[in-house]
Amino acid sequence: MKLPKISILVAVIVAVARPVAQAQQADLVARNGVIWTVDTDNPGAEAVAVLDGRFVYVGADAGVESFIGPGTDVIDLGGAFVIPGFYDNHVHFESTGRLLYGLNLLDVSDAEAFVQRIRDVDKRYAPGTWITGGDWSAYETWAEGAVAEAGKQVNPDDLYGSLFLPNKGMIDGFTRERPVLVRRFDRKVYMANSVALELAGIRKGVPDPEGIAVERDERGEPTGALFNPVTGAVESTVLVRDNIRALFKDLIPTPSRSQRVAETQEVWKKMASVGVTSYCDITSNPEYVNIYREMRDQGKMTVRVRYRPSLEKWQSMVDLGIRIGSGDDWIRFGAAKAWIDGIMGNSSARFYEPYTNNPSSRGIWRDIMFPFERSPDNPEEMQSRLERLALQADAHGIQLSVHAIGDEANGYLMDMLERIIAKNGDKDRRFRLVHAQVMTDRDIKRAGEMHVVAEVQPFHAADDMRWMEERIGHERSRGAYAFRRLWDSGAVVSFGTDSPGTNASRYYLNPMLGLYAAVTRKTLSGQPEGGWFPQEKLTVEEAIQAYTLNTAYAGFEEHMKGSITVGKLADFVVLSANLLTINADDIKDVTVKKTLVGGKVVYSAGVNAR
Ligand SMILES: [Zn+2]
Fold it and tell me: What are the CA-CA distances from residue 415 to residues 315, 329, 374, 387, 404 (Å)?
């Protein structure tokens, strides 16, 4: 089925209340607003009333009066613009928490900032907890938000690139009791402090561990810098073996429960402040489901979640009784996730033809594609392991979602989906094509015909356009982030962030950046003028729908979320400007004044509630 389009630019105020037989006293009334409901039957309103966490009235100010009683909280919106809460279709929750509460060095490529960031985390973390990750220098060659010309030239003869290289002396002074192992964004280089080096047995007079080059000073003392073996050019960051990680793996304990809880609360705080009221959690450690349940039972959840484990877990999901539609208002299940190729950020996405700037590579398939074996029901047909898993999960009522970036990866999934439909029958399965990043014309058409959900993250376009054409050329770039054609083909375009990003790029949770990217198709610094492949722009109304109702649809939740409609959960946001009337270039600067979840204020102009 295709979702109705909301194309009316001017909000029409429907003066007729949609009364529940007799007006009850509401818990909350918000009135005097400009409300864009994302509900085609009732697109514009001035006021809402909320009872028991759901909308009981959406309409004109006059009609809401009868819902106000002595116990009703009344918010005067003061003419502010209101839309449904944002629903982020794709959040790597665990790594987002680690990045927000822990170390983030993506934009760091100098000693001063490096030391400062580690110092900050040292103050937050419990004594003894390892400081790890960081991904320094991610923006050293391609400045964040900049256009292609801004790329820094790296020395092509230096396999490790001529990038910032920290040493233990920078941080040893304040980390005498705490192990630190941070890495460069491409994982080719790591830096350990003295405590971590000692724990790994890396010291003066001892030979380098197998497969790792230890940088040493003139006295033979390790400097802290550790190097993985590399073969390709610095541009290609596909690392075949991460020996450093393997060496330290068993030394670094899994994060404590209290650290995970602190990280969870940090992300939820951030989400509330940018208006996110629901998100899909992509394959976080199952421990997070326990944390969610505990927080829900204590009434501490401020955002709703749909948890998606990896496809390999489909059998245990089924054993637990999980199907599409499982869960409650706060925590939901029903989908599983797989990955079949790499990413654009390090040229590992899988294409039919070689990379324009690297004729020897078409990108990679992930392990889940192997082994390729004969299909049990047709000896002439070769089948990937992914397809065997997908057929079974689909037959058992699990929703499929698969990451595909390159055109061949997307094409393979369209082929596979055709076979799944042929074998398991036609049904409302809402196959989620995750990222749908570069697609051929034929596959865009097929995605529409099979009513695929294009689970895209529009900020990727703003970020990747900086180097996209250099890597895959102009013709293939035409099919990149082709949101307009996907939408028109009949695919359901759903938005989110992919936070916290890849090891090469940061994707922020703020939905305004995604709306801005989808509507303008420009980088954050406003280039190119007129937008990159501007024929693929969406309207702002469509972009809002993609970030709310369409993501609810993508999770079989459109009956409970995604629009400001009587009977749905009262999740909505009050914004600093009217997205429908401002200049599209200004969308990225719009802020959230209030976020309400289930009719309760969870964020208000700079202050997180609860
Ligand atoms: Zn992802």
Answer: 24, 35, 16, 10, 13
